[in-house]
From TrEMBL:
GO cellular component: cytosol
Name of the protein: Crp/Fnr family transcriptional regulator
Keyword check for Endoplasmic reticulum: no
Domain HTH crp-type: 130-196
Coiled coil ranges: none
Signal sequence bounds: none
Source taxon at top rank: Bacteria
Domain Cyclic nucleotide-binding: 1-99
Length: 196
């Protein structure tokens, strides 16, 4: 992410947001670049029946919601804190000025956005056509790969609820599918924690 010292050169503000604070809603105009110092954010859409479909979770040292700043379109999802959070907020104009002055930061951010787009393309395919076990395994393997833990045992840091929100499955379905995956030796469960 963008170094704190560089953000501070552009008069960014570090703000505290209590848990369950909505930072912006779907279809609002993008006004700020957001980068988490500490905390957790979820980006989500509400379905017609009022259920949440989570687009992603973001934590310490992650930025989020950048594409609308570049594309001049409204936010495609809402963002809410899931824990008390300290977040750097930089106005859109200052953010774009920073990137023009520091092309290496722009390249890093572009690469990050591309990785997120690949993830979304993979997940959309999985969510729409495959059974629950396959969806969950694809999601967990994505996070394992993203954490660069190919050949080691990987502890899944997502809760069953978060897996449910990311795959569009009910929590009960996630629990049953994880048990099936354990029986087929595709993952293991120790002390209620899931490992790949």
């Amino acid at each position: 992410m963008i170094a704190t010292a560089l953000l501070e050169q552009y008069n960014t503000q570090l703000k505290f947001f209590p848990k369950n604070t909505v930072l912006f809603n779907e279809k609002q105009e993008p006004l700020y670049y957001y980068q988490i110092l500490t905390g957790n954010i979820k980006m989500f859409n509400l379905t017609e029946d009022g259920k949440e479909f989570v687009q992603g979770f973001f934590e310490d040292n992650n930025s989020f919601a950048e594409p609308p700043l570049f594309g001049n379109f409204k936010y495609p999802a809402s963002a809410e804190t899931t824990s008390d959070s300290y977040i750097y907020i930089l106005p859109k104009d200052a953010f774009l000025t920073l990137l023009k002055a520091h092309p290496e930061e722009h390249l890093n951010l572009t690469q990050l956005i591309c990785r997120r787009m690949i993830y979304k393309a993979k997940i959309m395919k999985e969510v729409s056509i495959y059974p629950p076990e396959h969806r969950i395994l694809t999601l967990l393997n994505h996070f394992k790969t993203a954490d660069k833990q190919q050949n080691t045992r990987y502890e899944v840091k997502l809760t069953r609820q978060q897996i449910s929100e990311l795959t569009g499955l009910r929590v009960e379905t996630v629990i049953r599918a994880i048990k099936k995956l354990e029986k087929s030796n595709k993952l293991s469960i120790l002390d209620r924690k899931v490992y790949l």
